[in-house]
Amino acid sequence: MFHLTFIVMKVQVHAVHFSADQKLIRFIRRKLDKLETFYDRLVGSEVYLRLNNEGVDNKTVEISLKVPGSRLFAKEQARSFEAATDMATEALRNQLKKFKTRLRAGRV
């Protein structure tokens, strides 16, 4: 008999000065859940969505990702929140790979 324990990462999404729809929030959660395939000890994350008044790339996504003993951060701007989320989660994926390498080497 097997017992599986799933720890669900806590994700907080903050839309600054506007209301984010559920479709966008689900998209962000799916992207962040995929990061757990690279490192399964993620504690939680905070996502800030902002609308900027300048230029074409006027949507900003900031993601703070909590891992045991550290915090990773990515901030991206794009034409849509989805595109900015894609870029930010890609940056976090690269940071997680480096974090795991440092962890294995005992430098964290």
Task: Write the topology of this structure.
Layout: E1 10-15, H1 22-35, E2 44-51, E3 59-67, E4 70-78, H2 81-104
Parallel strand pairs: 1-2
Antiparallel strand pairs: 2-3, 3-4
Helix pairs in contact: 1-2
Q: How would you summarize what this structure contains?
A:
With 108 residues, the protein is an alpha+beta fold.
What does this structure look like?
The chain is an alpha+beta fold and 108 residues long. Helix content is 35%, strand content 30%. It is built from 2 helices and 4 strands. The chain has helices at residues 22-35, 81-104; strands at residues 10-15, 44-51, 59-67, 70-78. A hairpin with a 7-residue loop joins strand 2 and strand 3 (59-67).
Indicate the mean pLDDT: 89
* CATH class descriptor name: Alpha Beta
Strand order of the largest sheet: 1-2-3-4
What is the beta-strand fraction? 25-35%
Which characteristics define this entry?
2 helices, Double Stranded RNA Binding Domain, about 35% helix, single chain, about 110 residues, alpha+beta
